[in-house]
From TrEMBL:
<dbReference type="InterPro" id="IPR005975">
    <property type="entry name" value="Nase_Mo-Fe_CF"/>
</dbReference>
<protein>
    <recommendedName>
        <fullName>Nitrogenase iron-molybdenum cofactor biosynthesis protein NifN</fullName>
    </recommendedName>
</protein>
<comment type="function">
    <text>This protein may play a role in the biosynthesis of the prosthetic group of nitrogenase (FeMo cofactor).</text>
</comment>
<feature type="domain" description="Nitrogenase/oxidoreductase component 1">
    <location>
        <begin position="19"/>
        <end position="428"/>
    </location>
</feature>
<dbReference type="InterPro" id="IPR050152">
    <property type="entry name" value="ChlB/BchB/BchZ"/>
</dbReference>
<dbReference type="InterPro" id="IPR000318">
    <property type="entry name" value="Nase_comp1_CS"/>
</dbReference>
<comment type="similarity">
    <text>Belongs to the NifD/NifK/NifE/NifN family.</text>
</comment>
<keyword id="KW-0535">Nitrogen fixation</keyword>
<comment type="pathway">
    <text>Cofactor biosynthesis; Fe-Mo cofactor biosynthesis.</text>
</comment>
<dbReference type="InterPro" id="IPR000510">
    <property type="entry name" value="Nase/OxRdtase_comp1"/>
</dbReference>
<dbReference type="Pfam" id="PF00148">
    <property type="entry name" value="Oxidored_nitro"/>
</dbReference>
């Protein structure tokens, strides 16, 4: 069990984590016809918007209540109401996801009361638009917590409560924030190959997959529909991916009685085998031939790739669940986790990290701990540390803004695990150093030294 080391600095040096409201907005972007709304200053929203656009290279419908100095002092209820009504008039969204920021959370406003009043007094004007509140102050948590809070808020605010008639083939899936667009697409295909009907919340593969609509759409296009969220209680089972999604799965079970199965990771042969066995049991169907073929491809990749991983030292910095996903992958391939840095210490999954310790900190801590390792694994903000250390960087997570196509890289299931093996092995091969005579023959220098010492010149 890994020991969790608390932060050692009072200020972050090259921050590792992204904010809670950004994580909540990310989740709202996985709903069809949605607009995330930051309740705070314009600067908070602009920073998050820049990160989204640089990562996805897409137009992102992120809006703000644009609190100014006067509203900050006197209260932002009027700004919130004005922003919601403007969004309704101009964009006709099906869902407005309100993400609170540190500015108004510090002031201590009654956000739930404000939104309840707006819904009641403006019911006719807001007909057809759902408003969901996620309390996500910047000073607490990170992208992982924000994502989970938004998903939980959508379930609690939209899903029809009470026991309902279950559809035996319907499966609710609650993916973690660290699953890419490609991951969710592959997951859907796998579930459907068993004859099951997946409902994924949130589904960023439908809204952030890089397609270009034939006209300007001011909201998200694609993703989970509001009606699908309402009908989650008709699912036979729920599959949650990542420890941070446990609270969302608990909320669904509490409201509707739908049982859930939690997977801490879907990367690696054993983890994917568990999922495949579960889907086969739920559906009563045999494992399809194409799934078996992908498993055989992964087995071959494991044989081909493990030579490149053995004895390698890896330094990883990521959110807790992604840190677990990556560390277990590398450890399973025979590498050593020499440094593990996380954004927070609340997640129970950190205790299961296959490393001696997990440092809660930033990329400055990673740079200090990563000296002498063979590979640095984190997002694009780690590129300077990798350059200073002379260590190759494998980009994962969010944001990745100096490479194209990160959202289309699979990291889970048989295919994603296979591709990860190849990517890492190729990095190692591209950065290996040709052996010198000294490394091939450790006694070579000693023999030369002994000969010199015994020579007549040395005696005189």
């Amino acid at each position: 069990m890994a020991s969790i080391l608390p932060p050692t600095k009072s200020a972050a040096v090259n921050p590792l984590k992204s904010s809670q409201p950004l994580g909540a907005a990310f989740a709202f972007l996985g709903v069809d016809g949605a607009v995330p709304l930051f309740h705070g200053s314009q600067g908070c929203t602009s920073f998050a918007l820049v990160l989204f656009v640089r990562h996805f290279k897409e137009a992102v419908p992120l809006q703000t209540t644009a609190m100014d100095e006067l509203a900050t002092i006197l209260g932002g209820a009027e700004h919130l109401e004005e922003a919601i009504l403007n969004l309704k008039t101009r964009t006709q969204p099906k869902l407005i996801g309100v993400c609170t920021t540190a500015l108004i959370e510090t002031r201590g406003e009654d956000f739930e009361g404000h939104i309840a009043t707006i819904k009641r007094e403006r019911a006719q004007e807001l007909a057809g638009t759902q408003i969901i509140l996620a309390n996500t102050p910047d000073f607490d948590g990170a992208i992982e917590e924000g994502w989970a809070k938004a998903v939980t808020a959508m379930i609690e605010g939209l899903t029809r409560p009470g026991e309902q008639v279950r559809k035996s083939k319907k499966i609710a899936i609650l993916p973690g924030w660290n699953l890419t667009v490609a991951d969710i697409e592959h997951l859907r295909e796998m579930v459907e190959s068993f004859g099951l009907e997946p409902v994924i919340l949130p589904d960023v593969s439908g809204s952030l997959d890089g397609t270009v609509p034939d006209r300007w759409i001011p909201t998200t296009y694609g993703g989970t529909s509001v009606e699908d969220i309402r009908q989650l209680g008709t699912a036979a089972y729920c599959i949650a991916i990542g420890e941070h999604m446990r609270c969302s799965a608990d909320a669904l079970r509490r409201l509707t009685g739908v049982p859930y199965i939690l997977f801490h990771s879907l990367t690696g042969l054993e983890a994917v085998d568990r999922l495949v066995s579960l889907l086969s049991w739920i559906s009563g169907a045999a494992v399809p031939a194409k799934i078996r073929r992908r498993r055989a491809q992964l087995q071959d990749a494991l044989l081909d790739g493990h030579f490149h991983f053995g004895g390698k030292k890896i330094a990883i910095a990521a959110e807790p669940d992604q840190l677990y996903q990556l560390t277990t992958f590398f450890a399973g391939m025979g590498a050593e986790i020499a440094a593990a840095v996380s954004t927070g210490d609340r997640s129970k999954i950190l205790e299961k990290i296959p490393a001696q310790s997990v440092q809660v900190g930033d990329l400055g801590d990673l740079e200090t701990l990563a000296a002498g390792t063979d590979l640095l694994v984190t997002h694009s903000h780690g590129r300077q540390a990798a350059e200073r250390l002379g260590i190759p960087l494998m980009r994962v997570g969010f944001p990745i803004f100096d490479r194209l196509g990160s959202q289309h890289k699979p990291t889970i299931l048989y295919q994603g695990t296979r591709d990860l093996i190849f990517e890492v092995a190729n990095i190692f091969q591209a950065n290996q150093h040709a052996p010198s005579p000294e490394t091939l023959d450790p006694f070579r220098n000693r023999e030369i030294t002994d000969d010199l010492a015994s020579s007549p010149l040395a005696r005189h």
